[in-house]
Design a protein that fits this description.
The protein is mainly β and 111 residues long. The chain has one helix spanning 24-34, and strands spanning 4-5, 11-13, 20-22, 39-41, 50-53, 58-61, 75-80, 86-91. The strands form three sheets. A three-stranded mixed β-sheet has the order 1-3-2. A three-stranded mixed β-sheet has the order 4-6-5. It has a two-stranded antiparallel ribbon with strand order 7-8.
Amino acid sequence: MWSDPEDVDGWGMSPRGAGYLFGADIVKQFNEINGLTLIARAHQLVMEGHKMMFNDSLVTVWSAPNYCYRCGNVASIMEVDERLGTQFKSFDAAPHETRSTPGRLGPDYFL
């Protein structure tokens, strides 16, 4: 879903300039039609790493800690068990002093 959840009724225009905003009513309708209880999505920065919305019927998971080396956000992964229970594991970015740049592995024309 390129569009983003928001506390709106129905659909709205996205401030990103592309896609739309959608509300709890749209999520409820989509889940009922498709026999779902949870929509899991990504591609929207969440400072806490994950965010449940609309009575836990939608979750956004963000797995890039300190996005673009400047956002200061936490990242998460969502584990789903055999009974469809969910658990989140959150993590911070690796400390700057422990990161390294890998050596060049490809041909010179991949600059």
